[in-house]
């Protein structure tokens, strides 16, 4: 009689883990396919028309820019956040393409833009890239509305501080969505308190933000759950999480790490005073990366707060988690910038 075979416990454990992984992946895929949010997020932006532009940054980095909407409409410049791409704004682009001239671009190293030759992912480099895009895409004499998410909003504040004297003639209004201007680590709710003291927790946070950790090339059950926890919230739909996850995974490892290092040392609070135009601040109440305390501090430091909006059951990705509310805020902001300009007294030349 042949001896009975017994499976080694490690082999049984591996089979169990593999089975659970396969089941979790299949479950995730079914939920994504059935999610009504999936089709709008997957829509090809080429269907909206417009044109593609390549803008050279001051250091020669090629920036991928898309311009959509009527050429004679007010210009709104949309700036995405860390590890994202211009497609992050797809729901706003679809909703507003018929009424506004929308300029969106990939920040250096992100999406279809070129990598920085000198690995310069400082806030100053991002600031100067924004200025290059404005010079290339905003018609002479027009005042654009600037709307940024996360790092994109930080870039707006940095640009305002550098160009304070010319800002009133170049910018009509500003939107700062899901962002902060400093103290990003100590206020974050991502990492649990260690009890080791502020200095050590600050150093741990800096290491986490700047870590050059390899990520999978394709979505996995683990990566989707990490992205949901860090960047979204429990209420986010499966397709919304998958949409954000795919962008994060596509961001090059060195860009993610070097930009994260910039964020870990960021201090822009003094730049808020330079934003002397109507400004809307939006934050999700479940934002772990830049919790509402950041938005409240910014509102205290801004000269003209048009709206401070806190949205329930929304994490860090407000424009995709709450697209209708975010889009309505952009419309209101454009109108506020126009009204503020109309209420200013005309300048009469002396003579």
UniProtKB/TrEMBL annotation:
It comes from the Bacteria. The keyword Heme does not apply. Residues 74-323 form the AB hydrolase-1 domain. It holds the Pfam family Abhydrolase_1. Signal peptide: none annotated. Keywords: Hydrolase. GO terms for molecular function: hydrolase activity. GO terms for cellular component: membrane. This is Putative hydrolase. It comes from Patulibacter medicamentivorans.
